[in-house]
Amino acid sequence: MSSMFRVTHDTKHADLPEILALSRTKNPTGFELLYARYYRLLFSTAYMVLRQESDAMDAVQNAALRLYTMDESLFPSDHELTWLHMVVKNEALMVLRKKKPEFRG
Q1: Among residues 19, 10, 12, which one has the least CA distance to residue 80?
Q2: Can you tell me whether residue 8 is helix, strand or coil?
Q3: Distance from the CA of 76 to the CA of which of 24, 30, 48, 82 falls in 20 to 30 A?
């Protein structure tokens, strides 16, 4: 883990709702935990849509940035993992849209 972010004993065993609660307040530890614990799972979601490793990595990073800049009122109060998958899936679809050439008739 980055030396910039310190995982404390209190947060070491945090579950997803607790991690999102930290992230909602822009706490760097929350984002570090979210990335460390859920990156592989979120990457696989993006990869299923994009079928290209570099694009899937970009989608997960874009999702992380979206979460960081998102208004805290938009974070879920339940079904957190489903919501997180949807954020990543939407970012993956955005990557696809950017790559798809515009149809000009």
Answers
A1: 19
A2: coil
A3: 48
pTM higher than 0.85, yes or no?
no
Q: Kindly list the domain boundaries of the chain, sorted by start residue.
A: 9-99
| CATH 1.10.1740.10 at 9-99, yes or no | yes
> Which amino acid would we find at residue 19?
I
Cβ 2 vs Cβ 33: under 8 Å: no
At 53, phi and psi to the nearest 5?
A: -60, -50
Distance CA 14, CA 17 (A): 8
- Distance from C-alpha of 69 to C-alpha of 83, rounded to nearest angstrom: 16
Q: Give the Cβ contact number of residue 14 at 10 Å.
A: 19
Predicted confidence at residue 91, as pLDDT, reads 98
pLDDT score at 10: 61
